[in-house]
Specification:
Among the domains are: 40-131, Cytochrome c-like domain (Cytochrome Bc1 Complex, Chain D, domain 2, Orthogonal Bundle), CATH 1.10.760.10; 132-225, Cytochrome c-like domain (Cytochrome Bc1 Complex, Chain D, domain 2, Orthogonal Bundle). The chain is built from twelve helices and two strands. It has helices spanning 2-7, 13-32, 37-59, 61-64, 81-90, 112-125, 134-137, 144-154, 156-159, 182-191, 206-220, 237-268; strands at residues 166-167, 173-174. Helix 5 packs across helix 10 (182-191) and helix 8 crosses helix 11 (206-220). The longest helix has 32 residues, at 237-268. One of its GO terms (cellular component) is plasma membrane. This is Cytochrome bc1 complex cytochrome c subunit. It holds the Pfam family Cytochrome_CBB3.
Length: 269
């Protein structure tokens, strides 16, 4: 009996063995597992910021300052976010060709990768709106009717009720939204470029923005039709009134002349 008691294991032996096995397993996983995804993403982001800084120094710093702090020729970019850069550079508005009342849209000179790098650098200067993902501006799950109501309430006074654009004061204008990338429309609502106010999620929710974009796609798409017949360019009451004045009044004048001519002939006979 004494011999068997001497060979009995210590009560903590099993716990020690378990801890040892866990330590060995954890060490083996750390040694052979692939690099952590978050760490890889951080490395890629740091590289994008570094490359974006180089591009910024060449194409943007002369107006916006070497650190994006702004100059007399350009506003500060601290806190504008990646979405503002993606919109301005992606639509070719920046770099600007020349100063003026409004910077027009034109063909961009950067690749998508370079735009992403510029956006990453500017975003590193201060938190701001991020570039939306495709789900945020796709028509899936959108309410076109609601989008039309929201657009007419918040946007039509400048862009016209079908997004054809319109004139503003002092040589400024609201550009046409026909043919504009849905992502850029979403970014414009988020950031408020040039004369446009910004519509953050507090004033227009993500679903509201999706609905508006779906509405614009419906009225300006290739397959869009005017249920009322000839839409006269969709420019609103000015073109419709001019059409009515020229053709409607012209038709009345022609009828009056014809009636007068017939009456004169009847009297002579």
């Amino acid at each position: 009996m004494k011999k068997l008691s001497a060979r009995r294991r210590h009560p903590l032996a099993a716990l020690v063995v378990l801890l040892f096995a866990l330590a060995v397993t954890g060490g083996a996983y750390a040694a052979f597992a692939p690099a952590d995804k978050a760490q890889a993403d951080d490395t890629a982001q740091s590289l994008a910021i570094k490359e974006g800084k180089k591009l910024f120094a060449v194409g943007c710093a002369s107006c916006h300052g070497t650190g994006g702090q702004g100059t007399s020729d350009g506003p500060s970019l601290v806190g504008v976010g990646a979405a503002a850069v993606d919109f301005q550079v992606g639509t070719g508005r920046m770099p600007a060709q020349q100063p003026g009342a409004q910077v027009p849209r034109k063909k961009n000179i950067y690749t998508n990768a370079q735009i992403d790098q510029l956006a990453a650098y500017v975003a590193s200067l201060g938190a701001g709106p991020t570039v939306p993902d495709k789900e945020q501006y796709s028509p899936d799950g959108a309410n076109i009717g609601k989008g039309g109501e929201l657009f007419r309430t918040n946007c039509a006074q400048c862009h016209n009720f079908t997004g054809k654009g319109g004139a503003l004061t002092d040589g400024k204008y609201a550009p046409t939204l026909e043919g504009v990338d849905p992502k850029h429309i979403y970014e414009a609502m988020e950031t408020g470029p040039q004369n446009m106010p910004s519509f953050g999620d507090g004033s227009l929710s993500k679903q509201n923005k999706k609905d508006i974009i779906a509405y614009l796609g419906a009225v300006n798409g290739d397959e869009s039709e005017s249920p009322g017949g000839l839409d006269l360019g969709g420019l609103g009451p000015v073109s419709e009134g001019l059409f009515g004045y020229i053709f409607g009044l012209g038709a009345l004048v022609a009828v009056a002349i014809w009636v007068a001519a017939r009456t004169t002939k009847a009297k002579k006979s």
